[in-house]
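Continuing the series of single-chain predictions for the mutant panel. This is the parent chain; the variants come on the following pages.
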Amino acid sequence: MRQRVAMKAGAALIAAIVGLSLVYYAIAPSQPNPRVSLVKSVPIPGVAGRLDHMDIDAASQRVFLAAVQDGSLVVVRLSDGLVTRYGGYYQPHSVLFLSSIGELILTVGNGTVYFLNSNTLVTSSEIRLPSNADNIRLDPRTGFVYVGYGQGPAGGIAQIDPKSSQVVRTLTLGGHPESFQLDVSAGYLYANVPTLGIVDGVRLQDLKVQGNWSTGSYVDNYPMAIDPSGARVYVATWFPSTLLSYSETTGALLTHTPIVGDADDLYFVSNSNVILISGGQGSVEVVSMKGGTSSIVAEVRSASGARTSLFLQDSMELLVAAPATGTRSASLLVFSLAI
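Parent structure:
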């Protein structure tokens, strides 16, 4: 993995700061735990099956949601609850809204990456990756987007220029990447490859793997989040259902915390020591990271199968996609986080 200059000196400084922080907590009044609460539920009638990832156009309050089994792109307007469904897609998986160029990127199961006009949602161009186009991430410095794709040994990540709708380069990882996250300040991308039980560290400059670490007895590593300031990579596994925190520099396992099952999204809340997790077992959990330990400090019911979510840092809200079950229609759940 990447090395840092004066690592030993930096470690000593961090240790000193941590020591001072522990003294502060010993004498300071105890702080209330974070709280998470359901604000509203927006019905999504007529949409069946699993719901995958989403993004938002904050200006218009439109949430773009990939409905996998329904084969549709669903648009939910938070301001008035208006729902519009755009069908005809093969297993939509993920969306990314690009306000700078007025486009929405949609990935689907046959490997197609669609570029849509964000106002009309008409396709302006498309490219075809080998198969199973999935998660999308944006590098705000370069404007490039990264898309996970493929199955088995052919799984990898494509670097794409959305302005030209062209693939710049690709990287084969030997397995399908589930969640991957960018630490642009460090120039790295970290990718979960659950079929291999590893986390790959990829240099963004040339899209080359620089190293990896194993998740060991923790298997099916799906969601991921990064704390760039603390140089921590957070990974959730399905078996057992556990939140793992790793050193971004060394890959060392630092903490492990039992969490809700079937988690598919997790978020590090900036300027805090909090991780948000949405799990398909039916709850949202808040994990606090303090003094080298981690623990669940808040939990609220969501819905069975509500695995995927989107955290809005500015408003401190978590949007959770709840699929239809029995007589209950699908819905978008809006939770508020107070720290």
